[in-house]
Design a protein that fits this description.
Length: about 140
């Protein structure tokens, strides 16, 4: 079971919900995390259970970032809106930087998200289990 974060900016929330519907069968056995509204919308439209953090502007991105910093997050789908300025842009950049530091795969658009989910479906994320098993301070 992997820990997967689902985040979507306002104009990308419908896209995230449709993505979650399309890949519900793949996400079902995993532990899902999301920022507030995104998680709520996913749960309203699927049978998936999602641990909801605060909304992004209220610290949700930072809460997910804390999991990334401790290497507790296995991958992130973050459907960003590149055409809209975000008031919490520093938090977004910090989350992406932490993901790079920890080697956590991040998809910022549906095309890349689909590639990650197809890898998940095939079992290509088994390497994350090794990270959890052998990295000091990480519980299995």
């Amino acid at each position: 079971m992997l820990n997967i974060a689902l985040i979507a900016h306002d104009r990308k929330k419908d896209e995230m919900v449709n993505f979650a519907i399309a890949y519900e069968h793949v996400f079902k056995p995993h532990k899902l995390y999301a920022t507030g509204t995104t998680g709520g919308r996913i749960m309203e439209n699927t049978s998936l259970q999602v641990h909801r953090f605060a909304s992004g502007p209220l610290g949700g991105d930072q809460q997910i970032g804390a999991m990334v910093a401790t290497n507790e997050m296995d991958f992130i789908i973050f459907l960003r809106d590149p055409l809209m300025a975000q008031p919490h842009e520093p938090d977004i950049i910090a989350l992406l930087r932490l993901s790079d530091v920890q080697g956590i795969p991040v998809a910022t658009n549906v095309a890349t998200a689909e590639l990650l989910v197809k890898c998940l479906e095939r079992g290509d994320f088994a390497w994350r289990e090794l990270v959890h098993k052998y990295k000091p301070g990480i519980e299995s």
